[in-house]
Each structure stands twice: as structure tokens, then as C-alpha cells.
Please model this.
Amino acid sequence: MLHCIDESVDLLQQTTFKDEPHQVVAPKAGTGVGVVEAPRGTLVHHYWTDPKGVLTKVNLIVGTTNNYAPISMSIKKAAQSFIKKGTVVTEGLLNRVEMAFRSYDPCFGCATHSLPGQMPLEVKITDARGETVEVLRQFCQEA
Model:
């Protein structure tokens, strides 16, 4: 990674690189895929265009997609450690459970909120047999 950064800096500092003519590409139908490693994980962008170069379909696979399993396990572990039989579930307790998934993706902090600034959240508390004991909801409609 460090080598790539050094190479990028070298490329940007080359005067010939800055002075090269830019090529304008005529719009056409086709597909394009880009993959980049980012702080939140591997991002895959896949685009389809029509003959005028207008996007007709987009498929984005973000780092969160690759982390669904560990995110789910972290949420389960946090909920099981904080919520026991007889525990009064407060907003503060739910915030602690929320922290289990926010750490996976810095974008969760904003992306999981909706206007007017309240995050819909539903927590199902189940017993050892998997049967629902209680359902807690904030800012969401009942199912």
C-alpha cells in the first residue's frame, strides 16, 4: 500500500503527466466495472450505459455487504451481553447495541439515520428456543 502511495505521488509530480493532452471519449453503450480498496472495505462499482452514455443500471457492492456476517454476530453478541431477563431496555442500552455495528463502517453514523434525524430501530428479544419474548421499536412502524 505504501509503495502505491509513493508511486502515486511520483506520478502526480511529473510535469509530463500534467501536460499530457486529455482525450474526450464519445458516449456509447457498454458496461464498466471499477474496484477500489477503501477504509470501509472493498468497493465494487458496475455501470451500464445506453448508446448516449446515460446510465441505465448501476450495481454498487460496498464494504458493508462483505461484512454482513460479522456485523450480525457483533450485534447478537452485544445484545445478548447487555439484555438479560428483567433488564429494563433504555435508549442508552440500545445505543450500546448500535455501537456494535457502527464500528464496521464510518458511513453508518449518517446512513442509518433518516429525516427528521431519528434512526428506525427494531430489536427482537428471543428466548433460548428462539421464540420472541419482546419486541422493542423506536421511530418505526409496527410490523
Summary: The mean pLDDT is 81. DSSP finds six helices and five strands in the chain. Residues 67-138 form one domain.
